[in-house]
Amino acid sequence: MFHYLLRRLLLSVPTLLVISWVIFGLNKCAPGDPVTTIYGDDLTSGFDPERQSANYRQKAARLGLDRPDFYFSLTTTAYPDTLYRIFPPSRRLRLSLLAGQAGNWPLVSQYEKQLVAALHHADQVPDSLPQKTYLRRALSDLFLIEKVEYLDTARQFVRTAVAGLPENPAFSKTLDSLDAAVSALQSAVQTKGFPRPALYWYGFDNQYHNWIAGFFSGHFGISLISKKAVSEELYTRLMPTLLLNGLAILLAYLIAVPVGVRMARYKNRPFDRYGKRLLLMLYSFPVFWLGSLLILCFATPDAGLFWINGISVDPWSPGESFLLWMGKHAGKLILPVLTLLVHILAVLTLQMRSSMIEVLDQEYIKTARAKGLSESVVYGKHALRNALFPLITIFSGVFPVIFAGALVIEYLFNFPGMGTKTQSAFMNQDYPVLYAILMIAAALTILGSLVADMLYAWADPRVRFSKK
Q1: What residues does each domain of the chain span?
Q2: CATH architecture of 230-459
Q3: What is the rounded distance in angstroms from the CA atom of residue 85 to the CA atom of residue 69?
Q4: Of all residues in the chain, what percent are helix, strand and coil, respectively (each to 5)?
Q5: CA of 344: how far to CAs of 3, 108, 252, in Å?
Q6: What are the φ/ψ torsions at residue 130 (nearest 5 degrees)?
């Protein structure tokens, strides 16, 4: 069994890696910029691109976003292998678009170098001259242009703004160099051939490697909304979710197994007939409707009994003892646990009943009865374990739910768990939190299948996982 589980674990690694690639790709394609979201838009304000780049790079380094995205990049020779070092991303996108049109990165780099030099000369123009404002606006328009064909028109606006300024030989030389750089770009667009493909290798110091390594070490990044560590955000929601869902599922299994066995034992008798009707009726109740009905009956003073003083549960913080928090809100946990329990119980009990009936028709059960074994031994020792297989399969599916939470229940009862955290992260576009939850759910799904395999072996020793 150990070798089988080890083999399954090794086979699950590629699956988890592929899922992580998809999630990381979605994260990189998500709208918005995490650096400006966390530290503010003032990082990219102003006209000086060098200052913008330095400020942005300093903040991006804190978030680990100053490195290449992946281990390698497959591109063309029109782009350099250091494109990821250009900040902010808007500047990187603009220069990459120009490079894609010209097919020549050195010319694009030279053009921006001359444009920055022209901007520095413009800063030395006295503020008393009205042409300075017009000149700076014309230069800033050049910084926003993403098509080479529009550079010539914008360059003419710069020349027009300079015409009314005092003679400055150094500035004139810089503008001549800028004109030459623009002309070179336009010529490159006309003569550009087919760029050759290029493969750039960056090694292990990249964003994906650090992200997946952080996932396995418990460091999921920084929340865009709260500015706190994602691990801290999730931990405060994980413990209440484990309590709510774990308790409901545990009670459901403890009740469903004996009740399902008893229904199978008394098949077509009143206990079985009325039990099936009751369970089917409970299963047909929508979870939201059932939870609302319980709130109306037991937690509303105007229409119900008001046995429970409110339903809202205060969030749990790590500085507070979890046992004290649980004792403080024990009464408020009854209704959400009961709502979850009713729905899961109906599924498990009916599945246990049908599985038990199927097992009782097997030949080895008839042989056990022919040997004179008591019904208790037949049901408890010979039939029960084989009948548990479908319930184990269901458990592998609900295992991630124990950690991921139930959104409808948590929203209805205002419960601070993982379900409402997922919904909040989605609505607020808090992508680091959202994608960390997706990765955790994927890992738990794989882990659930491994747990199910171990339970299969426990339920039936005849199961063999490896060849002798």
Answers
A1: 35-213, 230-459
A2: Orthogonal Bundle (1.10)
A3: 11
A4: 70, 5, 25
A5: 34, 63, 6
A6: -70, -20
DSSP string, 295-364: HHHHS-TTTS---SS----PPP-TTS-HHHHHHHTTGGGHHHHHHHHHHHHHHHHHHHHHHHHHHHTSHH
Rg of the chain's alpha carbons, rounded to an integer?
A: 33
* CA proximity to 119, closest of 111, 108, 107: 111
pLDDT at 52: 79
Q: How many CA atoms lie within 13 Å of 373's alpha carbon, on the beta-carbon side?
A: 16
pLDDT tens digits along 14-39: 888 899 999 999 888 888 888 888 88
Tokens coding 38: 């966390």
Q: At 44, is the pLDDT very low, low, confident or very high (cuts 50, 70, 90)?
A: low
CB 207 within 8 A of CB 69: yes
Are 275 and 410 in contact by the 8 Å Cβ rule? The answer is no
How far from 163 is each of 143, 155, 173, CA to CA, in Å?
A: 21, 13, 14
Which residues lie below 8 Å from residue 329, measured CB to CB, with a gap of 6+?
313, 314
d(CA 182, CA 327): 72
Smallest Cα–Cα separation from 74: which of 193, 188, 195? 195
208-215: Cβ within 8 A, 24+ apart: 208/20, 208/21, 208/24, 208/69, 208/70, 208/71, 209/71, 210/64, 210/67, 211/24, 211/64, 212/17, 212/20, 212/24, 215/20, 215/436, 215/439
By the 8 A CB rule, do 311 and 413 touch? Answer: yes
As a whole number of angstroms, the distance between CA 320 and CA 153 comes to 65
Residue 71 has pLDDT above 80, yes or no: yes
Measured CA to CA, the distance from residue 204 to residue 220 in angstroms comes to 18
Residue 259 token pair: 């009740």
Q: Mean pLDDT over residues 338-355, rounded?
A: 88
| Torsion of Cα atoms, 241 then 244 then 249 then 254, to 10° | 140
Look up residue 50 and give its two tokens.
Answer: 């060098």
CA angle, 45 as apex, 44 and 50 as ends, to 5°? 65
Chain centroid to Cα 337, Å, comes to 27
Q: Is the peptide bond before 126 cis (omega within 30 degrees of 0)?
A: no
DSSP class per residue in 396-446: HHHHHHHHH--HHHHHHTT--SHHHHHHHHHHTT-HHHHHHHHHHHHHHHH
Cα separation, 248 vs 339, in Å, equals 9
pTM, entire model: 0.78
